[in-house]
Amino acid sequence: MDEQTFVSTLPRDAKRTGALPFLRGWLRDPMGVGMPFPSSTWTARRLAQAALDAAVPGAGPVLELGAGTGSVTRALVDLGCPVQQIVAIEHDRELCRSLERRFPGLQVLQGDALALGRTLADDGPTSVRVVVSGLPMRAIATAAAVRCYGDSFDLMPPRGAIIQYTYGLRPPVEAPGCEATFVGREWRNFPPMGIWRYSRAR
Questions:
Q1: Cα–Cα distance between 121 and 115 in angstroms, integer?
Q2: What is the rounded radius of gyration, in angstroms, for the C-alpha atoms of the chain?
Q3: What are phi and psi of 179, to 5 degrees?
Q4: Total count of domains within the chain
Q5: What's the pTM?
Q6: Residue 55 to residues 81, 85, 93, 179, 191: CA-CA distances in angstroms?
Q7: How far is CA 94 from each of CA 109, 110, 131, 177, rounded to the nearest angstrom?
Q8: Residue 143 parent element (H or E)
Q9: How far apart are CA 141 and CA 84, in angstroms?
Q10: pLDDT, tens digit, for every residue of 22-80?
C-alpha cells in the first residue's frame, strides 16, 4: 500500500489530532519513528510527569528528543510547563511544521537527536533541566544511543536525568556510567510502555 492509499483510509480527525503527520513520518522512515502510532495520552502524561519530577530547577528548558506529534509536549504544557520552556527536536520536516502549528512559541529544531552537538550548535540551549526521550532506542545502534545519552548528560547539572520509554521489559540503553531506575509501566498503551529514569552513576 502506497502512502496516498494508506492516508485515505485514516479517520477524518487524524490530521487534527496529529496522527496523520505521525503516520506519514512512519511511512517515510519506519526505523526512525519506531511504532506506526503515537503513544497514548496516558503514557504521554506519565512521561511528562516523570520529566517534571526529575527536572533540575533553574538549569534551562526541558529538552524533548523525538517530539513526534507533540503528545508529550501537550502533556508538559497541561502539567504547567510553559511552552517557551520546552525545546523539541524532531527529524521529520512535516512533524516539525505540525509542532509549530500546534504549539505557538515552542522552539522546534529539525535535526538528528542522536547528534545533539550538531543539532543544538546554532540555536539550541547550552543547558537544560531534564531530557525526555521519545526515541526508539531499541532500534538504534548501541554506540549511537550511548553517545546521545552522554551528550544529554553534558547539557545538565550532575543531578540531571533522562526520561526514556521502552516497549520491552528491560532498560533500553546500557550506557557506561549511567544508572537506570524503573519508573513504572503504562498499561493503557498499545503495546504497554515501560518508563525509565537514567541518571549518572554515583
A1: 10
A2: 16
A3: -115, 135
A4: 1
A5: 0.82
A6: 11, 12, 28, 16, 27
A7: 12, 10, 23, 36
A8: helix 142-154
A9: 32
A10: 545 444 454 444 444 567 899 999 999 999 999 999 999 999 999 999 999 999 999 99
Indicate which CATH number applies to the domain containing 136: 3.40.50.150
Question: Which residue has 480527525 as its cell numbers?
Answer: 13
C-alpha neighbours within 13 Å on the C-beta side of residue 157 = 11
SS3 assignment, position 24: helix
pLDDT digits (tens, 9 = 90+) for 118-170: 999 988 999 999 999 999 998 899 999 999 999 999 999 999 999 999 888 89
Q: Which residues of 23-42 are buried (b: 16+ CB within 10 A; e: fewer)?
A: bbbbeeeeebbbbeebbbee
Q: Tens of pLDDT along 2-20?
A: 444 434 444 454 444 455 5
Quote the domain boundaries for residue 155.
Answer: 3-200
Q: Which three cell numbers stand for residue 191?
A: 503495546
